[in-house]
């Protein structure tokens, strides 16, 4: 899985160990990568490798039930948890940015986010457009590792997407992997194509080379008929957002020469960008922040109304979190796509009444190009994840698939994150910044038998803004794996249920009662 994260088809910049999300890395440096691989190759079944921000620092005698790897990435003491201090330590070679699934070795390429993005746009369609995006235009930016899922997620929901990206190679890559349908020559061409497709209710995605801080305000000025606006540039890291007054080719040299000055210029551009998004919201469009901290950076850039539109979690995703639903994903270690097709069928058989899930799996089979090892993602909730995990383990044991299946998830899950401007924005009881939950989540996964467990800081939204945990568990067909999977895949989403019960969400209380999640403060 470490190597798969750095497969050239999977990683955005594998030569620099960068997997996705700006600078999210799989290992601190190549010497660390080699040492991790070497150690894992002869690690015993009762030993655990400790990884500190991408560097293997120890092997401890533990037990068969203990994780094989424990990972802590990018964590800083709160008063020091800012980009300046992180960069100082990074330059000294003492830390690395782990993002969410880069440093925890469960990134599966753009498909990983596609399902979540599909769910989000489906929820937008449900809320505002009668259940489909047919005949609507979505304006967004960023075609990187995560953002590259946006055009396909919009078209899978029937809509038209116009996506602004400043790096021509990213547009090319999304065209090649069929996440993006077309490339426009210029803004006029893009608008023309979009308007025709909207009129004909054709689902089409159009890439446009440009800077979002120029294009979004210009579209607002022209009164373009945009229905939905969001953004997935790498705004969480101001050095990974191209300011409007910097040429693409000067990006790297300029940010290296003067990171402080560059940050200010990026924040000023983000302020212009967000001001235009608020303008679209004022004009009646559905506008939401897509988890990249753009609003916070725009506020730092001097724009006072930056938080006038909501984040996507409170707007659309929280009801799913109350059911323990989140981004369940799995990978076929055989490398054989047939193994994923067999597991797809198993999931469809397990949950025959879930139409949305069925539509997603069929669409994914048709439209998703595998990157690296074949993999799949779908959102499953409390009770469902453990059923799927146990079934996959049986398939490994019975030879229905050729090799073990790795089961994990994004750190962006129902009970594994504290991130007040994203996953925990606007919690009912105001507990947005309480970070005990991801730590409990990591500890319960260690106690339940996960194969590797990670605690990270700053993923998705940047330094100082989030703490989150991940787990990955291997279905190798043994009875021991079955016992571990049953516990991990019950307790891990169970954290989401109890976190939302504690915050006062009625739906979470119902789910806890129906599915047997114990909450002591609700017992007599
Ligand atoms: P990435 O670095 O791979 O891609 C970002 C893209 O934005 C790059 O291709 C870059 O060229 C482009 N870009 C930068 N500045 C631009 C500008 N001014 N105009 C146009 N294009 C510009 O990052 P990614 O993995 O795609 O992630 C994007 C953002 O989404 C990150 O901030 C990440 O933390 C966040 N994220 C959100 C979620 C979620 O669930 N909503 C999940 C993971 C990551």
Q: What is the class of the largest domain in the CATH system?
A: Alpha Beta
CATH third-level topology of the largest domain:
Urocanase fold
* Count of the domains: 2
Low-confidence stretches: none
What is the tally of beta strands? 17
CATH architecture of the largest domain: 3-Layer(aba) Sandwich
Largest sheet: 9 strands, mixed
Structure commentary:
This protein has 2 domains: 1-107 and 317-524, 3-Layer(aba) Sandwich (Urocanase fold); 111-310, 3-Layer(aba) Sandwich (Rossmann fold), CATH 3.40.50.10730. It is built from 18 helices and 17 strands. It has helices at 2-5, 30-41, 83-91, 111-128, 150-156, 168-176, 187-199, 212-222, 251-257, 259-282, 294-300, 312-322, 337-350, 355-367, 384-397, 436-448, 479-502, 506-515, and strands at 18-20, 24-25, 47-52, 55-61, 69-73, 137-141, 160-165, 182-183, 205-209, 228-229, 286-287, 326-332, 375-380, 405-409, 417-418, 452-457, 467-475. Strands 3, 4, 5, 12, 13, 14, 15, 16 and 17 form a 9-stranded mixed sheet that branches. A 6-stranded parallel sheet has the order 8-9-7-6-10-11, with helices on both faces. It is globular, with a radius of gyration of 22 Å. The termini are far apart. The model has no long low-confidence stretch (mean pLDDT 96). Nicotinamide-adenine-dinucleotide binds at residues 12, 20-22, 113, 116, 141-147, 164-167, 170, 211-213, 232-236, 240-242, 290-292, 412, 460. The site of nicotinamide-adenine-dinucleotide has 34 residues, from helix 4, strand 7 and helix 8.
């Amino acid at each position: 899985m470490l190597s798969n994260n750095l497969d050239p088809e999977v990683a955005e910049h594998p030569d620099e160990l960068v997997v996705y999300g700006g600078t999210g890395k799989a290992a601190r440096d190549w010497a660390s990568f080699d040492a991790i691989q070497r150690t894992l190759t002869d690690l015993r079944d009762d030993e655990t490798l400790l990884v500190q921000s991408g560097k293997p620092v120890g092997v401890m005698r533990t037990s068969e039930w203990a994780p094989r790897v424990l990972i802590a990435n990018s964590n800083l003491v709160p008063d020091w948890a800012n980009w300046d201090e992180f960069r100082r330590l990074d330059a000294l070679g003492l830390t690395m940015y782990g993002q969410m699934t880069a440093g925890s070795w469960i990134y599966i390429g753009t498909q990983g986010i596609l399902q979540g993005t599909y769910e989000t746009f489906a929820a937008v369609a449900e809320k505002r457009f009668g259940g489909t995006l047919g005949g609507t235009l979505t304006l967004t930016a960023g075609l990187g590792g995560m953002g590259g899922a946006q055009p396909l997620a919009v078209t899978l929901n029937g809509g038209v997407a116009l996506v602004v990206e400043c790096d021509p190679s990213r547009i090319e890559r999304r065209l090649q992997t069929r996440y993006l349908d077309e490339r426009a020559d210029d803004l006029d061409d893009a608008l023309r194509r979009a308007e025709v497709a909207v009129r004909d209710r054709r689902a089409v995605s159009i890439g446009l080379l440009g800077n979002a801080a120029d294009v979004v305000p210009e579209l607002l000025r022209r009164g373009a008929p945009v229905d939905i606006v969001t953004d997935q540039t790498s705004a969480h890291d101001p050095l990974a957002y191209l300011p409007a007054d910097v040429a693409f080719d000067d990006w790297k040299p300029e940010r290296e020469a003067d990171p402080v000055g560059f940050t200010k210029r990026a924040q000023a551009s983000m302020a212009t960008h967000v001001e235009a998004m608020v303008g679209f919201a004022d004009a009646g469009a559905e506008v939401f922040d897509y988890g990249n901290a753009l609003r916070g950076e725009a506020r730092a850039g001097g724009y006072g109304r930056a938080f006038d539109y909501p984040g996507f979690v409170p707007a659309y995703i929280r009801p799913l979190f109350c059911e323990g639903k989140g981004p369940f994903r799995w990978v076929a270690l055989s490398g054989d796509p047939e193994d994923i097709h067999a597991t797809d069928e198993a999931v469809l058989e397990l949950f025959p009444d879930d139409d949305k899930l069925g539509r997603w799996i069929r669409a994914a089979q048709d439209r998703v190009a595998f990157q690296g090892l074949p993999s799949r993602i779908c959102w499953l909730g409390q009770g469902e994840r453990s059923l799927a995990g146990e079934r996959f383990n049986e398939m490994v044991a019975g030879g229905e698939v050729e090799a073990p299946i790795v089961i994990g998830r994004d750190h962006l899950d129902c009970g594994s994150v504290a991130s007040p401007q994203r996953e925990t924005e606007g919690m009912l009881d105001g507990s947005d910044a309480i970070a005990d939950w991801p730590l409990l989540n990591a500890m319960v996964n260690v106690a339940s038998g996960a194969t590797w467990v990670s605690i990270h800081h700053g993923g998705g939204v940047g330094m100082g803004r989030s703490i989150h945990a991940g787990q990955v568990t291997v279905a190798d067909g043994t009875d021991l794996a079955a016992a571990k999977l049953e516990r991990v895949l019950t307790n891990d989403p169970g954290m989401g249920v109890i976190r939302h019960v504690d915050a006062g969400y009625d739906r979470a209380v119902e789910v806890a009662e129906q599915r047997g999640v114990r909450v002591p403060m609700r017992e007599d």
